């Protein structure tokens, strides 16, 4: 899973841009008309529908979704199916399930914050004694707190030591264990190595840190991570579809889309050395769990995003403020920061929050913007090789917001929940 590019970071959280014409923003393509849709896109919001149709046709994306809410009402829910070469593509409905990749992180962060809300966990607690981790390999591990895991300041830098969640073959060989490795193996391997920087001194995006947060949820709650999330976060707001994904294509859940990538990899599911499509065995969904393993639909994501808008059955006011709190290292040069599972930017009268997710076969984006506008867009392909830039999605959506003259008053939620 990749960190947001600087360009995407600047685009996503910025104040909404002035309206521009669709043709000026990007060219229409004749193939956009061949995109098949499901769900509801009111005429007043047709511009968003055109953005998605053009975007998927330009990038040859076969499965996509878009959901938009305005002031808490679900106003657009669409599934998109596209085939440039006549190949069969399963129907995509507004409730089809997609891998979320790093959009899983705000879910895990909310679970941790909820445990603190319930008085079961201190966010300033050191992680090592909480999880029984040895500090022998690096005494600085004692300075890694729950807060620092949430805000990616724990001391692991994948640009230096690589991402432990992509080192299955290396870890299996180092530990002398067979494939597939599990989360315990990853923790053992990471625990034998030094940190990359002093905890709390700087930001470095860490999937491993969120793996540890998932283990904290289990240790403190006394139940499985997925069970805790479904019971304490999802059930109270009526979300039942979301669940953790699995690696093999044969274990796809009902309603899950297919994933496409130009790349192949040596499987991490066994020691056969078989070369497989990267989305189906090139990495472990099971190990990604808390930091990148969830499945959801776009309508699920915008519904879940409402728990951050105002106090409710999941999070109180203090917890919501904790989700968006500035880290001890302060803000970036452009004024944005990483809170707890969200990138954050202050705009007049509002905090814009957003996150992206990326895996081979997956690109996802979720944003909560000023004026009560929230959207989620999910795709079964990410930017690879010479494909057009995927980062243009955010400014294209932003350009359409200012052109809406009348927002629908109907709430589509009852169709999907």
3D structure, described in words:
- This protein is α+β, with helices and mostly antiparallel strands.
- The chain is built from 16 helices and 13 strands.
- The chain has helices spanning 6-13, 22-25, 46-59, 105-117, 127-131, 146-150, 158-161, 168-175, 183-191, 207-221, 225-234, 285-292, 298-305, 317-323, 393-401, 413-416, and strands at 36-40, 63-70, 73-81, 98-99, 243-244, 264-266, 275-277, 294-296, 337-338, 343-347, 350-359, 362-369, 373-379.
- It has an eight-stranded antiparallel sheet, with helices on both faces. Strands 4-8-5 form a three-stranded antiparallel sheet. The protein has a two-stranded antiparallel sheet with strand order 6-7.
- A hairpin with a 3-residue loop joins strand 12 (362-369) and strand 13 (373-379).
- Helix 3 (46-59) packs antiparallel against helix 15 (393-401), helix 4 packs parallel to helix 10 (207-221) and helix 10 (207-221) packs across helix 12 (285-292).
- 50% of the residues are buried.
Write the layout of secondary structure elements.
Elements (H helix, E strand, L loop, with lengths): L5 H8 L8 H4 L10 E5 L5 H14 L3 E8 L2 E9 L16 E2 L5 H13 L9 H5 L14 H5 L7 H4 L6 H8 L7 H9 L15 H15 L3 H10 L8 E2 L19 E3 L8 E3 L7 H8 L1 E3 L1 H8 L11 H7 L13 E2 L4 E5 L2 E10 L2 E8 L3 E7 L13 H9 L11 H4 L1
Antiparallel strand pairs: 1-3, 2-3, 2-13, 4-8, 5-8, 6-7, 9-10, 10-11, 11-12, 12-13
Helix pairs in contact: 3-15, 4-10, 4-11, 4-14, 8-9, 10-12
């Amino acid at each position: 899973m990749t960190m947001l590019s600087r360009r995407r970071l600047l685009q996503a959280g910025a104040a909404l841009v002035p309206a521009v014409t669709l043709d000026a923003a990007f060219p229409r393509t004749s193939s956009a008309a061949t995109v098949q849709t499901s769900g509801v896109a009111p005429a007043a919001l047709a511009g968003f529908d055109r953005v998605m149709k053009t975007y998927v046709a330009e990038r040859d994306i076969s499965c996509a979704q878009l959901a938009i809410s305005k002031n808490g009402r679900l106003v657009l829910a669409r599934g998109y199916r596209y085939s440039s070469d006549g190949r069969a593509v399963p129907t995509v409905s507004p409730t089809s399930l997609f891998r979320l990749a790093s959009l899983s992180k705000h879910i895990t962060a909310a679970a941790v914050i909820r445990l603190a809300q319930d008085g079961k966990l201190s966010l300033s607690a050191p992680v090592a004694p909480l999880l029984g981790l040895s500090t022998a390999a690096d005494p600085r591990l004692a300075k890694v707190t729950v807060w620092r895991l949430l805000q990616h300041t724990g001391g692991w830098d994948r640009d230096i030591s690589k991402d432990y969640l992509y080192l299955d073959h290396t870890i299996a060989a180092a530990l002398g264990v067979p494939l597939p490795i599990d989360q315990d193996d990853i923790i053992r391997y990471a625990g034998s190595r030094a940190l990359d920087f002093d905890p709390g001194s700087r930001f470095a995006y860490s999937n491993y840190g969120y793996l540890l947060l998932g283990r904290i949820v289990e240790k403190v709650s006394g139940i499985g991570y997925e069970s805790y999330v479904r019971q304490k976060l999802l059930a109270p707001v009526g979300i039942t579809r979301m669940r953790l994904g699995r690696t093999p294509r044969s274990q796809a859940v009902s309603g899950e889309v297919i994933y496409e990538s130009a790349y192949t990899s040596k499987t991490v599911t066994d020691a056969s050395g078989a070369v497989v499509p990267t989305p189906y065995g090139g990495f472990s969904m099971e190990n990604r769990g808390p930091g990148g393993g969830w499945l959801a639909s776009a309508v699920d994501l915008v519904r879940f995003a409402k728990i951050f808008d105002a106090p409710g059955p999941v999070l109180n006011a203090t917890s919501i403020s904790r989700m968006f709190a500035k880290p001890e290292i302060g803000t970036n040069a452009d004024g944005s920061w990483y809170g707890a599972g969200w990138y954050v930017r202050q705009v007049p009268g509002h905090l814009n929050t957003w996150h992206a997710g990326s895996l081979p076969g997956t690109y996802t984006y979720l944003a909560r913007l000023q004026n009560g506008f929230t959207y989620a867009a999910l795709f079964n392909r990410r930017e690879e090789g010479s494909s057009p830039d995927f980062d243009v999605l955010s400014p294209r959506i932003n350009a359409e917001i200012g052109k809406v003259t009348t927002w629908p008053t109907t709430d589509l939620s009852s169709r999907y929940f």
